[in-house]
Amino acid sequence: MVEWENGHFLGQEDSPCLREAAVQGLTLVTYDRRTIPPLLKTWAEEERTHGGVVFVDEKTISPADIGGLVWALTRLARETWNWDWTNRIYFLRR
Question: Where are the domains of the chain?
Fold first, then answer.
């Protein structure tokens, strides 16, 4: 099992990140709305599953607003604690 904290995935391609998140039962949280959506489309066409993706829009929650991001993710976790995140795509709001 690869630990996410050690920076192993920094600079890596998206596919290994998404794959490892699924293996570990994690949902990917990302501001990347340029390369992840086409990857999700490809995976859907190939009938590959992922652990879910939460998209964050930098116009809604700035990448510099760590507190706002944590608050929004905490609220999301409380509201969706019983969801199956497999193949789910969610757009985080403030």
Answer: 4-92
